[in-house]
TrEMBL record:
Subcellular location field: Cell membrane
Acyltransferase domain boundaries: 10-374
Name of the protein in question: Acyltransferase 3 domain-containing protein
TM region(s), chain numbering: 12-28, 48-69, 90-109, 137-154, 269-286, 292-313, 334-351, 357-381
Family per similarity comment: Belongs to the acyltransferase 3 family.
Length: 400
């Protein structure tokens, strides 16, 4: 079964990530943990926008991956087959792109980056890459692998959770009296112009299985333990997998309850979306203050992008693809992610030497040129895959 809202969510978030990376050199704080490239002039509002994008986009990607992971696991593949698929999908691209794309380009153009100081030799860059210390934008593949592996191991254990449903307080009959009391209280306190019906949500809540609640508890505990005790496990981004463990499980829950979730969010979009957006924007300035708050912002960000994707799907956006450009971008989302960096940095470095563009115009040009160049690289990668890989595979067959 196709899930267009997830496809749209991933596609839009990829475009947002390219914008985010083009914006980083024009901010004052966020580049410190990514690339050591700075423009002479910051973009007005750049710090705030970059912070919002950082809390919304990557968690949304991981949420969507968890959604699809649950779908795959429900089809019943063996653990070995699922592990092989994860390695092929995540670790193989990380290794190949790092070896044949990142290391040569970073060395050739001497791009300063996290764990790759300016002047590092090809051998030093390669060693840092093989050790999983220099990962650049491919850190996402590594943390997603660790988070997926965690749930591939733990999900069968959760399936054994005794499953009478969770107490009736979490079903609609149990919650209804509390919701009605809250609505009546709001009505008694409301200004004369307020509409009490705004507080009435239209929903039909499913019974919450005990395994789901146990999974939520496990996700939170595992993420906290890894965040606190594993902070020094920096190789292959293992220490950065704490939040993704939580975001992946949110996606898994969304798949399990997708019919109810989509109906609930759609019926109450005019209420849920503004409330979610308000909570996200209010908490955003303090997002870097504590990791628990940053995780909450990540969950809210993923929910926001999911609601927007659901909105566009419901109003018929997938049926209105006016050209093949969007279809090409959607089909090659993963490859665009792999190859958009360091392309975006090289474009910025070229434009920055001209020193004739305003910050936001330079960002816009960087995004457009990065998309065009990366599209060419994606086409070349398809061509190589079609022409060279069959030859390599044929040469590895017995008897050759």
């Amino acid at each position: 079964m196709h899930h267009p809202q997830i496809t749209l969510q991933k596609t839009v978030c990829l475009f947002g990530i390219i914008v985010f990376h083009a914006l980083l050199p024009f901010t004052t704080q966020t580049p410190s943990s990514f690339w050591k490239l700075y423009a002479d002039t910051q973009a007005a509002g750049g710090d705030y926008i970059a912070t919002a994008l950082s809390f919304a986009l990557v968690p949304s990607f991981i949420f969507a991956s968890g959604f699809l992971l649950e779908k795959t696991m429900q089809s019943g593949p063996a653990f070995s087959a699922l592990l092989e698929k994860r390695i092929h999908r995540l670790l193989a691209p990380w290794f190949l792109v790092m070896l044949f794309w990142l290391v040569p380009l970073y060395t050739l153009f001497d791009i300063p980056a996290y764990n790759r100081p300016a002047g590092t030799s090809f051998g030093g860059t390669l060693l840092a890459g093989l050790q999983g210390r220099f990962t650049d934008h491919l850190w996402f593949l590594l943390v997603l692998f660790w988070a997926s592996l965690f749930w591939m191991i733990c999900r069968p254990l959760l399936e054994r959770t005794p499953d009478p449903a969770f107490p009736a307080a979490f079903t609609k009959p149990g919650l209804a009296p509390w919701l009605e009391k809250a609505r009546e209280k709001a009505e008694s306190l409301k200004p004369a112009w307020a509409n009490p019906e705004w507080f009435r949500l239209h929903w039909e809540s499913p019974v919450v299985p005990a395994r789901d609640l146990a999974g939520i508890g496990l996700a939170v505990v595992a993420a906290i333990v890894l965040r606190v005790a594993g902070k020094n496990l920096t190789w292959y981004c293992f220490n950065e997998s704490a939040g993704p463990i939580l975001f992946v499980y949110c996606g898994m829950l969304a798949y399990r309850h997708r019919d109810w979730l989509d109906t609930f969010l759609w019926k109450n979009f005019a209420k849920i979306f503004p409330l979610t957006a308000a909570a996200f924007l209010i908490l955003l300035p303090a997002g870097h203050g504590h990791f628990l708050l940053s995780w909450l912002l990540g969950v809210l960000g993923a929910l926001l992008t999911y609601q927007l994707s659901l909105l566009f799907v419901r109003i018929g956006f997938p049926a209105k693809k006016a050209s093949g450009v969007y279809a090409f971008f959607e089909k090659n989302t993963f490859r665009f992610y792999l190859f958009h960096a360091p392309t975006v940095l090289l474009v910025f470095m070229g434009l920055d030497t001209l020193n004739v563009f305003s910050p936001w115009l330079c960002i816009l040009l960087t995004v457009v040129l990065t998309l065009c160049i990366t599209a060419g690289v994606v086409l070349c990668s398809h061509k190589l895959e079609q022409t060279q890989l069959p030859k390599i595979a044929a040469g590895m067959r017995p008897g050759n």
